[in-house]
Amino acid sequence: MPNLKFQSLQLVPILAFTLLVNSGTVYAIAKCQDADGKWHYGDSAATVCGDTRITIIDKSGRKIEEIDEPLTLEVINAQKAEEKRKELEQKQRTKRELEKKRILAIYPSEESVIRARDDRLKGMDKNIRLQEELLDTMRFDMKGLEARELPVDEKEKEKLETRIKMQQENMDAYYKAITQLRREREQTAEKYQEILMEFRELTSK
Fold first, then answer.
1. Three-state secondary structure along 133-197?
2. Using CA atoms, how far apart are residues 186 and 183, in angstroms rounded to an integer?
3. Could you tell me the maximum CA-CA distance found in the chain, to the nearest angstrom?
4. pTM
């Protein structure tokens, strides 16, 4: 086991307690100078200067080693955030490349993209028109219900009011469904436009 020799070394500019193995001998720094120029010794040196950048010099004044100060928590967190950012960018690039390959595998030509887009939008438009026709029928029926005279009999009156209420709820539901279908139609058109632009970019190279 090597001998432990404690040397009173000059530490430049601010030195901390550290161990250095050199030719079988372990040196331990015994003093350091803090940022205010005050010297610290032994355990105090290790405590006060342990988080600073140090230069180790042997007893002959020759610099043996220079050790950077430990990273602060702020720097460590910043490095982790940067690593996550780069990792996310790489995942996005990989996803993008896979999407491009998928497009070329599905669509042999620009015309095939346009044809697929038009067929899809045509089917969606047909469904929207069907739902709108049903909603128009429900509105017509609602007008008929609202035009009726309220029955004198309370039970009959309650039945009519319940039918009107249910009809309104159904109409509201259909209206929301149609609104959603129109939104999906817009999103589909935008998606196919992106695919078309990507296809043109890929095939132009």
1. HHHHHHHHHHHHHHHCCCCCCHHHHHHHHHHHHHHHHHHHHHHHHHHHHHHHHHHHHHHHHHHHH
2. 5
3. 116
4. 0.52
Token look-up 């319940």 returns 162
Q: Rounded to 5, what percent of the chain is helix, strand, coil?
A: 65, 15, 25
Residue-wise pLDDT for 139-171, tens only, equals 999 999 999 888 888 899 899 999 999 999 999
Whole-angstrom Cα distance, residue 131 to residue 181? 9
Burial class (CB in 10 A: 0-12, 13-18, 19+), 29: buried
Whether the Cβ atoms of residue 30 and residue 45 lie closer than 8 Å to each other: yes
Q: How far apart are CA 68 and CA 49, in angstroms?
A: 12
Taking only the tens place, the pLDDT of each residue in 68-93 is 777 778 888 888 999 999 999 999 99
Q: Which residues pair with 63 in a beta bridge?
A: 57
Taking Cα atoms as reference points, which of 36, 33, 40, 37 lies closest to residue 14? Answer: 33
Q: Where would I find the beta strands (DSSP E) of 16-157?
A: 19-22, 25-29, 31-33, 39-41, 54-57, 63-67
Distance CA(25)–CA(181), nearest Å, equals 79
> What is the bridge-based pairing of β-strands 25-29 and 4-7?
parallel
Give Cβ neighbours of residue 69 (< 8 Å, ≥ 6 apart).
51, 52, 53, 54
